[in-house]
Amino acid sequence: MKIYVESYGCTLNKSEIGLYANKLLSEGAELTSSPDDADLRLIGTCVVIQHTEDRMLRRISDLSTKGKVQVLGCLPSVSAGSIESENIQLLERKDFRSYYKGSLDDVEIKEASVFDGIPINQGCTGSCNFCISRVARGSLLSRPIEKITGQVLIQLNHGIREIRLSSLDSAAYGVDIGTSLDRLVSAVSSLPGEFRIRVGMMEPGNTSRILGPLLNAYSSSKVYKFLHVPVQSGDDRILDAMNRGYHAEDFRSIAREYRSRYPDSTLSTDIITGYPCDDDESFERTVRMLVETQPEIINITRFSPRPYTPDYNLKTPPTNSVKRWTADITRLHHEIAEERMQKQVGTIRKIFITEHGKNGSSVGRDNAYRPVAIPGIHDLYTFVDCEIVDATYAYAIGKIA
Ligand code: SF4
Predict the structure, then answer these.
(1) Which of 95, 116, 148 is where one domain is finished?
(2) DSSP of 222-249, one letter per residue?
(3) Which of the listed residues 169, 170, 175, 238 should we mutate to test ligand 1's pocket, taking the one with most ligand atoms within 8 A of CB?
(4) Can you give the CATH number for the domain in which 28 is found?
(5) What digits encode the pLDDT tens for the residues 32-68?
(6) What residues make up the domain containing 235?
(7) Which of residues 291, 324, 341 is at a domain's end?
(8) Most exposed among 94, 160, 185, 207, judged by the fewest C-beta atoms under 10 Å?
(9) pLDDT, tens digit, for every residue of 265-276?
(10) Which is it for the CA torsion 45, 121, 22, 268, positive or negative?
(11) Residue 132 Cα, ligand 1 centroid: separation in angstroms?
C-alpha cells in the first residue's frame, strides 16, 4: 500500500500524524510524495479558526477525487461525521486517545521526513471559552515518562537528534499521572548522546505552577532556551472573559523569572486580536505588556467564533478596529524581534544544523533556538561555530567562524 501524508496545524497534530504514518510504514506501507500515486491519503487536519476549517474541507474534497482519504487531527471530532463518504474515512478522537494509552509507543521511525516530534499528552486542563481544540481533543491524558523516553531513544537511534516534545499544554503534563513536565525534561536530557530538546507550548496557568523546577530542568545544555507561553491578551478583563484562569501579571512574572535565569533566550507567545469584548483600552494594555516582556515571537490570530464553544454567538468588535489592532501588534512584533535579533550581529554562536536550506545553504539553531542560515551544506545534527554577520526579525545570517 502506498501512502501520501499531509498535515496542518500545531506541532502536536503534526507529531501524531507523523507517528501514525510511521506505524503504517513499519507495517509495510510505502511513502509516496504524490497524492495521485497513493492508495491511501492521510490528512492531519486543524480547525482552530473557521478559515482553516474551510481550507481543510476543500483539500479533503480535492484529495477524495483521487481515491481513499483518511482524515486525522481535530476535524473528525467536530464534524460529527458530516463529511464521511465512500472515499473519506474519519479517525475519531477515541482512536487518537488510544495513542496515549500505548498503541504508538514502540513505533519504528521508517521515514524521518514525516516524523515531527513526540506527543507527550493529549488534551488539557483548561476550558477556554474560545477554544475548539478542547472540544476536539478532550481532557488531559499524559503518557508515562518511560514511554516517552523510550520513543526518544528510538528517534535518536534513527539519527534524528532534535527532540520536539509536543502538546496543547506541555505544562499540564503529568498532572493526571502524578508526575510533571520538569521531571520529563530532566529524564529526556539525561539520556546519553548529543542532541537538543525543544519543549512545546505551555499555558501560563500551569507554567506558573511548575516554573521553578522547570527552569532548573532547562539548565541542561541539551534544552533549547525557548519558552512558548500563549498569553492571548494583556488585559485581565479579557482574560477572565476568555476563562483563561490567569492574569497578565502571571505572564509578566514568568517572563521576568525566565529572562533573569536565561538572558540569552527566546520567548514566544500568542495574541488573539478582536476578542468579543476587546476595545482600545484592552489593546493598549496588551501592547504595554508586550513592550515590557519583549517576546521575540508573537503569533497573532484574529478571533474566529468556533462551534461548540461558549463564545460562538458573541458580538465581535468593529472590523476596522480589529484590522488596526492586528496591524499594530504585527508591527510591534517585527520591531521587537528585529531589535533583539540585531544584537546577535558580531557575536560567535555555536549552531546545531537541523536542516538544509536553499541555494546550497544550511540552517541551524543556536542555544536559544534562533534560526541561523549559513552558506554550504553541513552534516545534519552537527555543531558549527559561526559569526553572525546580519539579521532579520525572523532569522540570523552567519559565516563559518
Ligand atoms: S488550555 Fe485553553 S486554549 Fe489551550 S487547549 Fe485547553 S482549552 Fe484550548
Answers:
(1) 95
(2) TB-SEEE---B-S-HHHHHHTT-SS-HH
(3) 169
(4) 3.40.50.2300
(5) 999 999 999 999 999 999 999 999 999 999 999 999 9
(6) 96-341
(7) 341
(8) 94
(9) 999 999 999 999
(10) positive
(11) 8
